[in-house]
Amino acid sequence: MEKNWTGPALRTRGLVVERGGRTVVDGLDLEVPAGQVIGLLGPSGSGKTTLMRALVGVQDHVAGEVTVLGEPAGTAALRRRVGYVTQAASVYTDLTVAQNLRYFARLSGLPPSDAEAAVAGAVATVDLGGHERQVVGTLSGGERSRVSLAAALVGDPDVLVLDEPTVGLDPVLRRDLWATFRTLAAEGRTLLVSSHVMDEATQCDRLLLLRDGALVADTTPDELLATTGAPDAERAFLVLIDRATQEAR
Ligand SMILES: Nc1ncnc2c1ncn2[C@@H]1O[C@H](COP(=O)(O)OP(=O)(O)OP(=O)(O)O)[C@@H](O)[C@H]1O
User: Of all protein residues, whose CA lies closest to atom 27 belonging to ligand 1?
Assistant: First the structure.
């Protein structure tokens, strides 16, 4: 039922977030359709993580409207339906891969009888087959971040919020992970993925560009190139950020 959701998967109206006494998201209105991979881009400090935290419902000092699959962000009804992967790997280093995933499967409310199949599915999705019994603390950095992704996937969420999931991964792993994101979206899930790597932007269905906590562009990769006349996503991004900086002066 959930994966056939036809309304906006993520929606904010007049979202304002204060952090450390400063306004770091300033009156943000956005609407993200379901079943797509949405890239969240912007300079360091532009508010990407803050926006993600507000959408997941873990950010304090939030004003305005934030809904996920039509429900207010952070409500109990959304807990199983939204997976969040933070920048730092958030799994237990003294447990094995399978122990971590079983734990997150139970946290997401899966009965023990379904947990093993869910764990096996998540391990396969992130390509960690053969590492199930390895203690997470002994995994490589890239493997560890894939365990975090598997922990978010194990409860079969409808929305995945991924904060820079490809940082520190080699090009082969990055390519494979993007292929996984495309598969997850094809199954009807919505993925919001922040990134600093501009060639990854071209693999998204839509792009949201943030600057100083405000939306500079809500576009597609093709439109981004067409409207800026830039030869590639990186230069197009710089054109838009420079334009927004000049307009702000
Ligand atoms: N705990 C905090 N207390 C005070 N200010 C904070 C806190 N966390 C973040 N900020 C500020 O909020 C702003 C937005 O930060 P945020 O982490 O959302 O940016 P970002 O776009 O995700 O950056 P990056 O790409 O570097 O991860 C920044 O100016 C940051 O300094």
Answer: 44
Q: Which two tokens stand for residue 59?
A: 């950010």
Q: What is the pTM of this model?
A: 0.92
Phi, psi angle pair for 79, to nearest 5°: -55, -45
Pair 119, 184 in one domain: no
Residue 219 is which amino acid? T
Give the residue numbers spanning the domain of 131: 89-156
151 shares its domain with 161:
no
CATH number of the domain that 182 lies in? 3.40.50.300
Count the alpha carbons within 13 Å of 171 in the hemisphere toward its beta carbon.
1
ipTM: 0.96
Each residue's pLDDT expressed in tens, for the chain with a length of 249 residues: 346 677 899 999 999 999 998 999 999 999 999 999 999 999 899 999 999 999 999 999 999 999 999 999 999 888 889 999 998 878 999 999 999 999 999 988 888 889 999 999 999 989 899 999 999 999 998 899 899 999 999 999 999 999 998 887 888 888 888 999 999 999 999 999 998 887 788 899 999 999 999 999 999 999 999 999 999 888 998 898 888 888 877
From CA 92, how far away is CA 242, in angstroms rounded? 42
Dist. CA 206–CA 201, nearest whole Å: 8
User: How far is ligand 1, taken at its centre, from the CA of residue 49, in Å?
Assistant: 7
Q: Tell me: do 145 and 215 sit in the same domain.
A: no
List ligand 1's pocket residues with C-beta within 6 A.
19-20, 24, 42, 44-50
Q: How many domains does the chain have?
A: 2
**Domain end position, chosen among 156, 185, 213:** 156
How many angstroms separate the alpha carbon of residue 214 from the centre of ligand 1?
13
Last residue of a domain, one of 130, 156, 182: 156
53 sits in which H/E element: helix 48-56
